[in-house]
Amino acid sequence: MGALEDGYFGVCSFMSRTNCCSGECGPNGLPLTPPSIAIIGRFQFLTSLRHPNLCQYLDIQRGKFDRIFVISEHYCKCVHDVVNENKRKRFELLPKIAYETLSALQYLHNCQICHRYLSGENVLINEKGTVRLSNYGLYYMTDSGRNVPFDIQHAVYSAPEVYVSDMNCQPTGPKGDIWSVGLMLLELVLFLYLLCYTLGKEPVLDSLLLHFQESTKWISENEDPNLADILQLISNSLTLKPSARLPGLDESFQFANPGIEHLAVVVKEKDVIYQLRRMAVLHRCLEAYPYTKDKLVVEARSDVPPLYRGYIWTALLDVPCTIDYKYANIDKESPTAADRQIEVDIPRCHQYDELLSSPTAHEKFKRIIKAWIVSHPHYVYWQGLDSLCAPFLHLNFSNESLAYGCLSSFIDNFLKDFFLKDNSEVMQEYLGVFKMLIAFYNAKLYNHLSKVNFQPEFTIGKLNRLHLDVLPLHKLFHVWDVLLLGGNAFPLCIGAAVLCDMEDRLLQCEFNECIILFSDVPEINVENCLKKALEIYQLAPKTLLYQRRLSAVFVNGKSNCRLDPFSFTLQVGTQLGLHLEEMDNDNVAQCPEICAEEMLFLCERKKNDVNNSLIIVDVRDKEDFDYYSIPGSINIPYNSAFEDGNFFLPSMLKNLLNKHYYMTVIVGSGSDLKARQFTLLLVGLNYSRICLLHRGIEVLWERKNS
């Protein structure tokens, strides 16, 4: 401990929170630690702080009834005493007070400590005129105020975010201290004590400006400062280089910053001006719906304003305008076989959300779910339906019929036949496509999971519930904003993105470790996950994503993705398109496939992109290849890739696959399995983006001759 010199011992006393009983125990079976003990434990770090502009903390004692006594260095003179001295001396001290106060705060902030209670009374000055900051450890030692029954803030000096954080029960950062310093220095400049200053009837800024003019006449008797001079002073005090300033609104405060459109959705949602502009655009789209449906889709690709999210989702899901009449005529009161399970599940659904955990929400949950069960007699209630309903109820809390309409449309479009009483066949089909998607995009991860026998069955639960039990609602909204535009296949891409995000950990895990890892999925970075999912969707063949006879949803026989306007539109049943009936052969090993129409589309699209081209490998015999082949394809006969019964990769193909390519398509005859086996062998060698031509090269030959 340093010498006190002209200082004194000071004592600060307060009561700690007493919210735990003496006999109460925690999950480990041990008694809970009283808040007063926790305060004493955190205080020890404060005693190690050393700075010439800080009052040193000396000791702490715990008294009766959990009263805490904090002993520290103290001085009798504070900044408010300087206010009462003559004007010229105060202005001489002002730069020194400002510098030393900010120096002390910088040291505290570097130590991860916020003052939170900074005011003129806590900025002490010793006999030498040196600033000594006091009471700076109260917020830290009480664990951001959690261990005391009072608010750690000042009625005059605390920043606005301090009051907001108290309402949200969140700790504040160092910016609030800078606000308090600014107000304290304002007192020195204006020669007034803000707590005792009474404003007149005129506006606040005018009142302060008049006081400033009156107080500064001694500086220049002939020229009074005006508002323009003050604004110029503030402007000159900003960072000189504009690019080094914090991004914010422009000087007019009327137009949104164009750069914000490229920021994260969370950031954009907090920008009021940007949200006003987006709401104006989407309001016009909603007013003219359905005539502006295409425009609405284009705008929704950018982001969805939270205030209009419920209406935009309703439009994207094509909920009919007669949904009010339909919902009103459904019997929601008669008992059903699922009533007991619904009563058990609903109170546990999103308990952290104040709105959804209310009794009113529970009643609405029950009515909406029962209405869906009654109106869909071919389906049954499965656990998770309540969580599926939660986002729609949250967004349409005052309109049950819209929530019901969104839920019904969502299940029809994204979870077709998942709620059948026996949905095993649908689930197996979904699992098969999910496995092939992983094999296509990340063959290394696919081979490792196959090696340790970790099948997608262990992850499909979270995938099937569309991450409802992994993400809180505010993050789930951002995922579903994209999901509703991505179509029926996009949930597969999100699941694959989550797996790939965990690749480094999964590659080091055996079966048991994988099970443990998926039993407690770590926090997901939603922004990165969506970017990865979109990348997977753009790369993966639509043939692969939609080769689901039972659960795939098509619009007029075509895939429906509004997320990427330039993506391939898959057609079902056409000569070169997808034929779902040929996907049901259980005797044939599954591998990623692409139909001829999609392959030709990609060939045309990538023909000028040398560094991101399409590789077409024809594994038929040379005679067949010379007779008819796809322009630009290379011939590597299936038999030439084997030596003594062992598969080896020809050097020419190996060099091609080691370069950057968009996709490799293996072409063969549809009458044998050579091309399929060749594809599986390449996947087994950890080569990604490998797929097989659907139905073989014969479909192209037939079209040529037709």
Automatic annotation (TrEMBL):
TM regions (residue ranges): none
Residue span, Rab-GAP TBC domain: 303-487
Signal peptide extent: none
Domain of life: Eukaryota
Protein kinase domain ranges (all copies): 1-265
Location of the Rhodanese domain: 610-702
Sections of the chain in a coiled coil: none
InterPro entries: Kinase-like_dom_sf, Prot_kinase_dom, Rab-GAP-TBC_dom, Rab-GAP_TBC_sf, Rab_GAP_TBC_domain, Rhodanese-like_dom, Rhodanese-like_dom_sf
GO molecular function list: ATP binding; GTPase activator activity; protein kinase activity; small GTPase binding
Descriptive protein name: Putative TBC domain protein
Annotated organism of origin: Trichinella nativa
